[in-house]
Amino acid sequence: MPRSDWRIQQCRDQFPVYDTLYCRANDEIGSAYSGICHVTDHRLRGFNPWLVGCGFLLLLYAILGNYIALPGYIRFIERGGTSAAGNTFDFDVLVGATKTILWMYSFQLGTLALACAYSIRENLYSIHLAGLGLVWLTVWSWPSLPQPGAWFYVIFGCILVIAISMALLGRDRALTTKTTRTLFLASILFFAFATWEVCGLGTTGRMLHPAQSEGGLAHTILITQSTKLMIELVLAWSLLLASFTLGEEE
Fold it and tell me: CA–CA separation, 30 vs 43, rounded Å?
C-alpha cells in the first residue's frame, strides 16, 4: 500500500470522525464533479465537434498570433517588404505571410464557426448566417478604405443612436421564431467582430505596441479599422433591432 494511502487508513482507524468527514468530503466532491460533467455534456451535446474544435483553435491563435505572427510582420514592413535575406519572396516570406493572414482572420473565422455550430444545433438559418459572415469578411478584407469624411460618422452615428434607442425601448417579447433567433445570433456575431476591432489583442495590436501607431502606414490602418468598426456596430444594432421588431410582428 502506498505510504499516503496507509496514513489515510491509519487516521480512519484511530479517528472515526475523520472517517466520516473523509467519506462525506469524497461524496461532495463526487457530486460536484458529476454536476459539472452533466452541465458540460448538456451544453456541448449536439454541437458539430469539427466546427467547435476549429472555432476554439482559431480563437486561441487570435491571441497567440500577437506573439507568433505580428512581430515578423512588423519586421517585414520595416525592411520595406523583404525577408531577412533581402528577397521580396522566398520561403520565409511565404511562411510569414501564411501565419499573418491566418492570424488576421482567426478571430472572425473562429467566432463564425462557433455561431454556425450553434445555429446548426438549433436548426436556424445556418447557410444565411454563414453567407452573411463571409460576405462581410470579403468587405473587411479590403486592406485600406478611403478616409471617410465627417458625413460618414454623422450619418452612421445617427443610425446607431436610433437603432440603440429603439432596441432598448422595444424589447418586450421572447425570440421564439427561427427568423428572430437567427437575426439575434447574427447581431451577437457582429458585436463580437466590433469588440475585437477595439480589443488590445486585435489585428492591429496598437494597444500592445502603442509606439507603432506613429507611422503613416499605421495611421492608414487605424482609419480603415475605425471605418469597419462603425459599419460592424451599425449592422450589429440593426440586426438586434430587426430580431425584436419581427418578434413583435409574429
Answer: 20
Distance of alpha carbon 45 from alpha carbon 144, whole angstroms: 42
Q: At what angle do helices 91-121 and 178-198 cross, to 10 degrees?
A: 150
What is the DSSP code (8-state) at residue 211?
A: G
Locate cell 421588431: which residue?
245
- What are the extents of the domains in the chain? 1-45, 49-120, 122-250
Cα–Cα distance measured from residue 108 to residue 63, given in angstroms and rounded to the nearest whole number = 12
Q: What are phi and psi of 89, to 5 degrees?
A: -150, 125
The closest of 231, 238, 229 to 166, measured between CA atoms, is: 238
All three cell numbers of 159, joined, read 443610425
Cell of 185: 445570433
- The dihedral built from the CA positions of residue 124, 130, 131 and 132, taken in this order, carries a sign that is positive
d(CA 112, CA 189): 7
- pLDDT values of the chain reduced to their tens digit, one per residue, 250 residues: 555 455 555 555 555 554 555 555 455 555 555 554 444 444 566 889 999 999 999 999 999 988 888 888 778 877 787 888 888 888 888 888 899 899 989 999 999 999 999 999 999 999 999 999 999 999 888 876 666 777 888 898 999 999 999 888 866 566 778 999 999 999 999 999 998 888 767 655 555 555 655 555 556 667 778 888 899 999 999 999 999 888 655 4
- The residue type at 241: L
Give the count of beta carbons closer than 10 Å to the beta carbon of residue 160: 17
Predicted TM-score (pTM) of this structure: 0.74
What is the number of alpha carbons within 13 Å of residue 241 lying toward its C-beta? Answer: 17
